[in-house]
Request: fold
Amino acid sequence: MTPGDPVAELAGRMKSGPRITVLTGAGVSAASGVPTFRGPLGLWRNYAPEQLATPEAFRRDPKLVWEWYNWRRELIAKCVPNVAHTVLAAWSRRYPDFTLITQNVDGLHEKAGTINVVRFHGSIWEVLCWRRCPSSPERWWDESVPLPNIPPSCPYCHGLLRPGVVWFGESIGSSVLDRSYEAVKCDLFLTVGTSAVVHPAASLVAEASSLGAFTVEINPEATPSSGAVDLAIQGRAEVVLPSVESLLKNQEFEIRDSRS
Ligand code: BJW
Reply:
């Protein structure tokens, strides 16, 4: 262990079995082949996510927006969790007070076996009636790939279906917010693979800090959070997280995989 090594510092802080909350973003799924939102690979047919992930865009052109989601569903269906997902899943089982808040809609944390996942921006595998017709359930799972019809229609009222995700200008569900604000009351808050520009998710790290958590960022690039966290680790999630895990495994680790 090199003195001043941020990876070793993070591992050291995890030894005592603290209350841990992790906020993840698209960078965690990058090594699985899921494109991030911002940056050149985030563009689809020259549209930025801000032009497609809004209720206005959907109202204007539901077919275009569904073509984007159908393309992403096809891509994600072929992806598997990477080692960053696997390490976080292991921690979720090892630490009795562990919450993973993800902005990702791809479902890869759940696929890796993570428990106690808060899906902050919903799921790409859920759908709901655009009109919220009274006969339809609030939302339901639909993993058909490719979608048989674009745009898909509500089986209850034959109007439009929409993806079960949170678009710009839409509120985060109240139970999701409640669980997230409960989880920021932790000892260690990690923000991993997010550009930290989309709120309110991006504000969670400051909330955690104001409540006394030690805050850590893992990202190959600097973000608006980098200067505010207690420890910024510059690196990719799929490299840094396994390094932390191997230091933990080399230490005498007394916390059992209590939830497994
Ligand atoms: C790696 C890596 C590797 C690469 N390892 N890292 C306060 C201030 C200003 C504005 C607002 C505010 N509060 C609310 C707003 C408005 C708005 C907002 O935030 N706007 C800003 C963009 C200016 N927020 C909202 O509208 C939210 N709702 C809301 O606040 O409701 C209340 C309200 C209602 C009405 C009016 C006002 C308030 C809702 C936000 C919903 C965001 N939805 C999306 C789409 C989800 C569905 C879908 O997937 O299609 O969520 S947008 C998109 O951005 C998606 C993501 O979850 C989200 C964040 O992106 P993320 O994950 O950070 O990805 P990237 O691509 O940005 O970054 C990737 C990072 O990974 C980079 O940093 C890389 O360096 C890194 N990386 N490889 C580790 N291997």
